[in-house]
Amino acid sequence: MQLVSAATSEGTLDDGGHGVARFRDMQHAVDRLNGDIFWAPASGFTAENSWPNIFGDEARSVFGPIPSVSCADGMPLHAEVHGNRIEPERTPGGGVRYVHQGFDGREVDVTDELARCDKPSLANTDGHPCAVNSRLIRPRNPANDVEWVALCRKSELGSRLTGIDDYWHASNPGFALLGLIGFNRASGEVVFFDGSDFARGASRRTTFDGSRRYAPPGGKGYDDEAGRAVAASTWLYGRRVSCETCHDNKEPWIVTPHLKISRFGYDEAARDAAFGVDNPLPLVQPRSADSPYRVIGTRFTKLAVLSSRTFEDPSGNCTACHTLTTDWTGNVLAYDAVGRTNPAQPYRAFFDRLARFRTGFGAEEGGSRPWMAPGVGPGVGQGRHGKVDDADWARIADCINGTSQERCGYRPSYTACPAPESEATFCDTGTSPRVPCTGIGDPNGPRGLSVSVSHRAVEVDATGHSYRLAEIRWNYVNAFGDVPTRDDVRFNLAFRASDLPETSLEPIPAEFPDIEETYDPWPEQTPRPGGGHYCDFGSFRAKTCHRFEADSGLLILNNISYRGHVRNTAPTPTTKPRRYAVRLPVRCGKRYLARLVPKRFCFDRSGVVPGSIDHLAYFDVRCDDARQ
Fold first, then answer.
1. Angle in degrees, CA 504, 510, 516, rounded to 5
2. Would you state the pLDDT for residue 391?
3. How far is CA 152 from CA 201, 206, 336, in A?
């Protein structure tokens, strides 16, 4: 517990004017003395900004700046058929034909359409999974532990890729889907943005132009009106795509042979040298079953079903390097990785559809399956050196399905939001997914709490009471996740006023406002007689209300940001503690007992999580020369 008492200063805390400072009421005094520092992050909702931009504001508060995306910056993802690379070539009529090119550069075949490929995408369930010349992008990011990956995906609603136009040519800038993933390696926080207003199909229109640079959700910030206008029509949030269902194994990006990564996509050394690429994805391993992994997006996660669990492979074959889960990773990726098909619905239907797009060459050893093998790990065709046998796979499948009689070591895939000044909590084997295991703690809290009271008199309304000016100060650095512009923590400050005691003894903790009394006041709460709420109704989603109760002497200030960080402005980057300060008039003849509480805006189903460490301060306002 931190308990401090006040120092007294001489006339240094007035509002900058001359003579006696005068205020209409307490709310006016709080506003004038502090400026607009009472506001919740990501709360500037207007109809023009729309939900995608609010989603971007939430993500920016957690991850820092979000990069813009240009598909032209990406690495092309080629398709292959029977071990040969497909290169769309323009025809005189304005369409394309598909040149099949061997790893030695020879032309092997030319076709007018493409129905199957060796390594179809396991994610593209809304379009043709053999799409040619999609692009994978790794935008730069200034935050140390934050990585971003974008995918500009060409796609087709049909059973074949045809050549009636040059859409599939590498130089055609059109894309049907745009996705962006952000991940913080230190904190385990992940965010998924989706721009997939899929318009490719019979109309032959595409949604995204690869020659353009698209503003991120939320633009560059609250004041980027042009960027926010573009982002509102680019990114989706109302029609949610269930990204978290597939990206459920503690890692944000899914690596399959579809990416053609060297050693992971080819069996033959010559083909690997010609067609394989260096891993374009940031390395985030090792990540264990206890690693933090939390999806950001208030509206997104309220709709999500985050019930996936990780498990330990009882056979010892498949979880030494990575985690498996009871959701998509286990039911789809794991089955495909060992060359099997999940017989259970709805996954069987997925595998049946996938089989219609995969060549016979791709389905055989050396083509694309199996692409994981015990003792070897990634490597197409490595299964000839040993496959997971049927008995061991049955044990793994029982853990995936939840039917195992063995110890599977289940743990929730998704972890909870850590409060400020908290330690990591871990889930025991068999814990329910709803148990709030964080996998990581946040040791950062307020430091240097102090109070000063000025001799300078101020006037509040016409009550005849004498007031002085008090300032409560502290320092705080939001270092969670190592993001210099992180802005997801605010403070609440609760005061209780009582008559001056007859003795100068320090108050006991029970006399201070308790932790529940510092919770956010809301308009629907009925104030006690003589009290009232003062709320900011300009914010649609997160109202910032203060509460003043004359009869109980209770005063609550809500959503305090650092000094100078006024509403809807970007925080200045820093790795050092920021200065926080709140000024308010205090009545002569009173003792004030204050509790300071930091709270994290989690932007998930956790809501707002307060700290639980006591930060207490008290001060006596004697004013012996004034009316009491």
1. 135
2. 93
3. 17, 12, 24
User: What's the pLDDT at 484?
Assistant: 94
**pLDDT range class, residue 7, cuts 50, 70, 90:** low
Query: DSSP letters along 504-554, please?
Result: -PPPPGGGSPPGGGGSPP-TTSPPPTTEEEEEETT-SSS-EEEEEETTTTE
Quote the crossing angle between the two packed helices 50-63 and 225-234, to the nearest 10°.
110
Residue 123 main-chain phi, psi, to 5 deg: -110, -25
% of the chain residues with pLDDT over 90: 46
Token couple for 258:
């579809």
Summarize the confidence of residues 494-508 as an average pLDDT. 90
Amino acid identity of residue 377, one-letter, is G
> How many Å from the N-terminal Cα to the C-terminal Cα in the chain?
32
The pLDDT tens digits of the residues spanning 456-475 come to 888 887 667 888 999 999 99
pLDDT at position 275 is 92
* Interatomic CA distance for residues 519 and 15, integer angstroms: 28
Nearest Cα to 264, choosing from 180, 324, 321, 313? 321
pLDDT at position 525: 45
Question: pLDDT tens for residues 362-377?
Answer: 887 667 888 888 877 7
Q: What angle do CA 238, 242, 247 make, to 5 degrees?
A: 140
Instruction: Note the pLDDT of residue 628.
Output: 43
Q: List the one residue out of 559, 479, 451 whose CA is nearest residue 145.
A: 479
What six digits make up the tokens of 268?
């033959």
Q: What is the pLDDT of residues 185-194, one digit of tens each?
A: 999 999 999 8
SS3 content of the chain, % helix, strand, coil (to 5): 15, 30, 55
The tokens describing 179, both together, are 């996705």
Three-state DSSP at 621 gives strand
Neighbours of 431 (CB within 10 A): 14
Mean pLDDT of the region 230-254: 81
Longest C-alpha distance within the chain, in Å? 100
Separation between Cα atoms, residue 383 and residue 379, nearest integer Å? 8
The lowest-confidence range among 397-406, 428-437, 559-568, 601-610 is 428-437
Query: Measured between alpha carbons, how far is 519 from 608 in angstroms, rounded to an integer?
Result: 10
Identity at 602, one-letter amino acid code: C
pTM listed for this prediction: 0.90
Low-confidence winner among 22-26, 156-160, 381-385, 602-606 (lowest mean pLDDT): 381-385
HEC-encoded secondary structure of 26-80: HHHHHHHHHCCCECCCCCCCCCCCHHHHHHHHHHHHHHCCCCCEEHHHCEEECCE
Q: Which residue has the tokens 């502290």?
A: 474
Length of the chain in terms of residues written: 628
- Long-range Cβ contact pairs of 21-27 (< 8 A, separation 24 or more): 21/456, 21/458, 21/459, 21/469, 22/458, 22/459, 23/458, 23/459, 23/460, 23/461, 23/585, 24/461, 25/460, 25/461, 26/460, 26/534, 26/548, 26/555, 26/584, 26/585, 27/534, 27/546, 27/548
Tally Cβ neighbours within 10 Å of residue 461.
14
- Do the strands 309-311 and 411-412 form a parallel or antiparallel pair, or are they unpaired? antiparallel
Tell me if 117 sits within 8 A of 132, measured CB to CB.
no
pLDDT for res 521 = 66
Contact criterion met (CB below 8 Å) for 41 and 488: yes
DSSP classification of residue 330: I
Query: Which H helix or E strand runs over 99?
Result: strand 96-101
